[in-house]
Amino acid sequence: MPSRPARTARSSSRSSKTSEPRPAPTGPSPALPDPTAVAVGELGSPHGLRGAVRLRAYQPGAPSLTPGRPVLLERDGVWLASRVAEAAPHGQSMLLVLDGVGDRTAAEALTSMRLLVRAADLPAAADDEFYHYELHGFAVVTTDGRALGTIDETFPTGLNDVWIVRGAGREHLIPIIADVVREIDREGRRVVIEPMPGLLE
Questions:
Q1: Confidence at residue 86, expressed as pLDDT on a 0 to 100 scale
Q2: Taking Cα atoms as reference points, which of 92, 41, 30 lies closest to residue 65?
Q3: What is the pTM of this model?
Q4: Which among 25, 66, 123, 172 could bridge 165 via Cys, Cβ 3.0 to 4.6 Å?
């Protein structure tokens, strides 16, 4: 879970005895489409008057969204680039502030945009961790050699995440839990599972 970030807004009350101009805040800037970027959530309505916007994170807690993280925004083929200034849990969702988005009007302009992170900008996963997008397309086989199909999607249930595995005209819902997932073979692009009784019926 991301920790509550320190505010990064520049102090408007700081006095300056020089005439040197201060850099103006910059909001999201145009960006090129990046097909490798990973969607991590969708922006909702503004919150308050200081540029915060609600975020429906696809992964609860959105651990990749830490202050300073470069992000992309996309809606109807229009791409923007920015950085996370603040991210914090807020009820069942999160509140997000992006660099240069300092008021409600600017936040409203981001409503309904997808929030993405370039794969290269994601924090490195530990040896026993993985990102869901990495395993999409992996074959799923059982410990006794039955091929079930490939991982098409992942969704959360609140207790654990679930893979949707499709193949041979069937669809299986596979819980991503240690009692079921026995091996993730990255080089072989396959996952070995030990089905619980009734799981594949």
A1: 94
A2: 41
A3: 0.68
A4: 172
